[in-house]
Amino acid sequence: MSGTAAPPAAPVDPDRYDDPDSIEAGRKLFARPATFVMGVAKLDQLPPADLPEVAIAGRSNVGKSSLINALTGQGSLARTSNTPGRTQQINLFDLSGRLTLVDLPGYGYAQAPKDLVQRWTRMVFAYLRGRPSLLRICLLIDARHGTKKVDDDVIEMLGKAAVPFQVVLTKADLVKRADLEALTLALAARLAKTVGAMPNPIPTSSRSQKGIELLRSALAKLARPQIETPR
Ligand SMILES: Nc1nc2c(ncn2[C@@H]2O[C@H](COP(=O)(O)OP(=O)(O)OP(=O)(O)O)[C@@H](O)[C@H]2O)c(=O)[nH]1
Ligand SMILES: [Mg+2]
């Protein structure tokens, strides 16, 4: 050492989640088995809102349940299906008492009976607007199709509800790299002008695991701190 003071450390950007420490925090959050808490068909059956909550929302069949399984590394935690509209309840999963992940019924499933669709849509929107512990919504968009009209409606509603949302592209394994990049850039430009939106969409694939580490890291920023148990 020459005796000169070390240069001041660069300020850490609290929103950054692609650095090694944040990735490690994400890994830790999802390292222990996640547990199914309950599934509710009505909002008044929800447990008390005392843990930070992140909801996985998106069109029917976009890959919400598959993403929860990929994040937790537990292949059959959330039920997935080729049949759109499979998840009909709000399902809650606990991550070590630090964060609750919420698997929502999909919206915009045209083939289901109309009154059922309306009931789901009403319930999901009421949940998204009114849940006090809801810190973030992951809004899933199929990377093959981009946003549809119903997604635009949801984005507008989220802006009004003032719940920050992160766009997550799903099924990236089914899209050419150039197309995925083009969609990601176009969405980023749009989100920059959208109230409540986190700036960068995260491309993911539950099949190839692409983006899963990064999303774990982003979610760990919202979790309760880990309590270190003394040896
Ligand atoms: N290739 C590919 N297929 C996927 C991916 N994620 C989900 N799928 C498939 O997409 C279909 C729907 O997946 P789900 O996870 O059940 O979708 P969901 O959004 O939970 O559907 P609902 O609960 O009905 O709204 C299933 O056949 C999955 O195997 C992915 O990353 N890549
Ligand atoms: Mg589902």
CATH topology: Rossmann fold
Basic shape: globular
CATH superfamily placement: P-loop containing nucleotide triphosphate hydrolases
- SS strand fraction: 15-25%
Counting structural domains, the number is 1
Comma- or semicolon-separated keywords:
231 residues; alpha/beta; Rossmann fold; binds guanosine-5'-triphosphate; binds magnesium ion
Task: Characterize the structure shown.
With 231 residues, the chain is an alpha/beta fold. The protein has one domain: P-loop containing nucleotide triphosphate hydrolases (Rossmann fold, 3-Layer(aba) Sandwich). The chain contains six helices and seven strands. It has helices spanning 20-29, 64-72, 114-130, 149-161, 177-191, 212-220; strands at residues 35-40, 53-58, 90-95, 99-103, 134-142, 165-170, 202-203. The protein has a seven-stranded mixed β-sheet with strand order 1-3-4-2-5-6-7, with helices on both faces. α1 (20-29) packs across α6 (212-220) and α3 runs parallel beside α4 (149-161). The chain is globular, with a radius of gyration of 18 Å. The protein starts with 19 loop residues before the first helix and ends in an 11-residue tail after the last helix. The mean pLDDT is 88. The chain binds guanosine-5'-triphosphate and magnesium ion. Residues 64-65, 86-87, 103 line the site of magnesium ion. Residues 64-65, 86-87, 103 line the site of magnesium ion (MG).
